[in-house]
Amino acid sequence: MIQYHVYPGGKKRVVTFSYDDGSSNDARLVEMFNKYGVKGTFHLNGGKYIAKSDEELAAVRELYEGHEISCHTVHHGWPARMPVQSVVSEVMEDRRVLENMAGYPVIGMSYPSGSYSEEAIAALRACGIVYSRTVKSTKSFLLPENFLEWHPTCHHKDALPLCDKFLRDLDSEWTHPMFYIWGHSHEFRTEEEWQVMEQILQKLAGNDKIWYATNIEIYNYMMAQRMLQISADERVFYNPTATDLWVEKNKKQIVCIPAGGTVTLRNEV
Predict the structure, then answer these.
(1) Which pTM does this prediction carry?
(2) Distance between alpha carbon 137 and the CA centroid of its chain, in Å?
(3) Residue 51 DSSP one-character state
(4) 249: β partners
């Protein structure tokens, strides 16, 4: 039996952070993320950057280097309250502005104020968006069933008590594969609130059993895993992607299939 819930390096847990609106507080939050070696996805409204100079755009790009710049509609529009053509316009213009600034395809998103609908999801898919985060905190650590309705674990204000639960079960089978924390950095208004965030990072960071990834890194890795070609007897693995991939066989053997490579396992005794 082959199981996919294994991440880069053979790790079985992933932690990701997701922050909306591009507040000036992002600079301090990014500094904290860098200090503790975790990664964040920052969902930005491109309208804030349309009139910026090249030098100002370069500064924003440098701020988020090592993390992910993602869509949040160009003017913070609420997709469920707009006609489909407005959703398309808001998302495509946001992509255009952010990609010009970031220098790479921006194909992730979070829903402004959590607003979305079936029609909005269809519009995002047509716009080339591959995932979008909601604000429906599950208080669980499950992987998304639908990346365009990616429900987070919790808002950062609720994260501290969940850290111990997540860490306690790092070695358990099939449970708690992902801890997804979201919020807005403008919500950090006092030093006490910043200290709580630092406590969260202190608990979660620096664990060799955890993969620290952006939203798009998680999406890309999971999509690559699904492209693995596996023989009928589950002994031969061909990886047609450009990404090293890991899987688990029979709940006891972690297998790495290098990018473009084929791995053949011995028959089990």
Answers:
(1) 0.96
(2) 15
(3) T
(4) 2, 253
